Amino acid sequence: MTDAALSPAPVKASPFNELEVLWVRHWTDSLFSFGVKRPEDFRFRSGEFVMIGLPGEAKDGVPGKPVLRAYSIASPCWAEELEFFSIKVADGPLTSRLQKIQPGDTVLMGKKPTGTLVLDALTGGERLFLIGTGTGLAPWLSVARDPETYSRFGHVYVIHTVRSVADLAYRDFFTREIHDDPLIGDEAKAQLTYYPTVTREAFETPGRITDRIKSGDFFRDLGLPEGFDPARDRAMLCGSMAMIKEAGELLETYGLKEGSNAEPADYVLERAFVG
């Protein structure tokens, strides 16, 4: 019998990290956030996404396959824990279970973050517009807390469109709490503007963000010249497929070009979320 025959078969490394849930916050009946312990060797760029999930449910004693979905990391690249912002879907394969997690539970996370909603995919500019709908706010929570964002852009606009006022999760964070951030608080106070819109309730800035851009209300509200300028403006898009498609077409009409990690340009969107 050879030595090879006596050697045990190599154990295949898991493609997932098993991470402890540190906290959970339920914003509404349809939105929640949670934080997990960050692996010491996990590195990512602010704005990237990663696969998050749970082990598959066993049937007849046979373990099921893990259920995973792509989630933007809502923490900046320097954070000691990883934060995620999620919808709740009653019959969703993942979120029907994920929404029930408690501190101390375990979730799965892929080991390879990726994505195009990163500063590296944009060329230099003066103003950065972070446009999101619903949980598409998540990558802006990361990008807006990265010191590089404020060193590269003179002003940063976080734009969040939701259906109801209650859905404006993180509103207090962007209007007050971020100003106390020990790393970028002063910069955010001087350079960050938060611009929420609500589509199905009365609100001071009502309607879809694309409609407000088309009407010019968006620019008037912010005291900006109407239109985007490809010489100075850069943008990132995340959220509903309809918004991303329409907003991308709008930016193109002003002369902005879509960029990528391989070819940085004027605006980027996350194609992994829009198909």
TrEMBL record:
Domain of life (superkingdom): Bacteria
Protein name: Ferredoxin--NADP reductase
Species the sequence originates in: Brevundimonas nasdae
